[in-house]
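ok so i was messing around last nite and threw this chain in just to see what happens. nothing serious, just curious
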Amino acid sequence: MGNHLIALVVEGQTEEAFVTTLLAPSALSKGVTLAPIIVETSSTGTGSHRGGGGWKGYHDLLDDLLRQPHWHRVGLMIDYYGYPVGAPGRDSGRPKADDRQQLTEALNSRYAGTASVNRFHPLIVKHEFESLVLAAIDAGAGDGIMPGRALRSLRAAIKRADTPEDVNDGASTSPSKRLKHAYPRYIKTVDGITLIQQVGLTAVLERCPVFSAWWQQLLA
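result:
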């Protein structure tokens, strides 16, 4: 595949930086130009506001992108824990732990009439973006950024869960909460990207089978 354009809809600035600094260079080495696009949550007199929000912003953006023929593919990267009420497959309440695949199928079904076959590639991240940060820590990242005690605690949690993507749910046990608890000064937009950069994308892909499978399909 060469000279193809792929639009990737993301939740916020951290995910945009992740695409720009790690995913896009990897894609370009395969002849693919990958463009991150942050969802617009609202538009007011003071300007547009981007990042997260309800499903309408995602829907309007995806519907628009999928109707533009110059995009070879349109991807979506959204946290499972942040999957909004009103999105395909989720009417109310928090999704259950085993719903991720069902939600992915609901997304594909919803946009089947807009996207031609193999153009839409959604990823509902298992469980949130910080799973990828934990993968980087599992691969050895963190020295010089986080205290040794924090790194040991996080690596022990990953070992108990089998993989970084399986680190579990809960008010104090989700990946983002574990990072913040282990290292209160953790800043997602800064430290999260730096940690992944320390070990590189390949190390993260090796430890995150769900994320890796989606990435390979997006570029295939």
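not much to say yet. The two ends are 8 Å apart (CA to CA).
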